[in-house]
Amino acid sequence: MSDSMIKFASGEYVPLEMHKVRVVQKLNLLPIEERLKAVEGAGFNTFLLQNKDVFLDMLTDSGTNAMSDQQTAAMMVADDAYAGSSSYTKLYEAVVEVFGTKYFLPVHQGRAAEHIISQVFVKKDQTVPMNYHFTTTKAHIELAGGKVSELFTDDALTIKSNVPFKGNIDINKLRALIKAKGKEQVPYIRMEAGTNLIGGQPFSIQNMRDVRKVADENGILIVLDVSLACENIYFNKIREEEFKNTPVKDILLTMCGLADIIYFSGRKISCTRGGGIATNNHALYMAMRDLVPLFEGFLTYGGMSVREIEAMAVGLRESVDMNVISHSPQFIKYLVERLDAKGIPVVTPAGGLGCHLDAKGFLSHVPQLQYPAGALAGALYIISGIRGMERGTISMDRDAQGNDVPSEVELLRLALPRRVFTLSQIKYVEDRVTWLYENRKLVGGLKFVDEPKVLRFFVGRLAPTSDWTNTLVAKFKNDFGTSL
Prior knowledge:
Layout: E1 5-7, E2 13-15, H1 32-41, E3 56-57, H2 69-75, H3 86-99, E4 103-107, H4 110-121, E5 127-130, H5 135-143, E6 147-150, H6 171-181, E7 188-192, H7 205-218, E8 221-225, H8 229-239, H9 248-257, E9 261-265, H10 266-269, E10 275-279, H11 282-289, H12 291-295, H13 306-318, H14 322-325, H15 327-341, E11 354-358, H16 359-362, H17 372-384, E12 386-387, E13 389-391, E14 411-415, H18 423-438, E15 446-450, H19 456-459, E16 461-464, H20 468-480
Parallel strand pairs: 3-12, 5-6, 7-8, 8-9
Antiparallel strand pairs: 1-2, 4-10, 9-10, 11-14, 13-14, 15-16
Helix pairs in contact: 1-17, 2-13, 3-13, 4-5, 6-7, 15-18, 17-18
């Protein structure tokens, strides 16, 4: 039990915020009739909602984490130079300290890093094995002509579980894939520290050591996405016996030392906009270097402002502070366990990034090709003003024949950015999710009315398959006696 999880006199363990709020942003809770109009105007796509219409924004932790006072102060002393900025030197020194790497390439965000890595290393018809894909990662690998192969363990997709490391790569599946494809057809093995799309589930350091052994046997690189590494190393410390007494900074150095290339989205790991690629291999650095000036900006800013660079340098060092990185996982655990105790289907054990509702279990009456995770996102917004993110079939693309590809899991992610929400707001989430579960039969499906061919979940628009939204609104107003 972490020090910031406090036992109350009642016997309940409650996450204790190890920070105080000094700057606030006003929130707005629209009446339910206006929320319905807002989600209809957004095509039942929570990405297209205007933030002014959102009460609690739980869409993502990307770019929405609260910066610290030290980060804000650092932005005021930025060296505003195109090339050779001393702000970059501070960031480089932070990267060396936190990740243990010699070479660093700044980019404007995580998907820019994915683009560069894919363009340099992935060739046509090659296969990139990984513990689980992320949407933009898959898109960039496929853009380069490659394919992804998810080699998750057999229990990774089990919704209710006590398996501590559901983000592990299955080593037997990895060996079989390399044997079947040929090692020359595997440009690298990708590991995501905290699997985003299956509930923020971590992998163990031992599993990464096993992957490293297979990679070395076959002369294959390991590329590590450390965007959510803070949560992963938090779980390594509390769930992996070897690391219970190890400082989190040393766990991260151990993890990064097992990879050939690491990359990150600063919007996640450092609470700032931006990103980067790092390595200890000079040849790999040189292979990627020239694409930064071509696509991003000069080598000492990479598409970021110097103010973001200053804040990132501070944020990276804060990312190995246990008080900082424990906040979101403990709030998530608190919400997950309270919902689970009520029989509401959520991904367990609690992972990083957010609380993940199992839409298949929640809306078992809605066919998967009517997008239950998207319908659940729309319904929750209507009855609460809470904006979550669909992580299911809408987040997939159609196959070559134009058929929908059902996702292996249908999740509604309720992200909990660091240092953003209060415990009373989490209790509000619990209350509204509970009411919606009790009235789940009122929720129907969705259908596309405007569907992009690639990454459709960002800007696609949908509509209800029936008049279920008005029925839901009427029931809410009757039960609560209010439109709020």
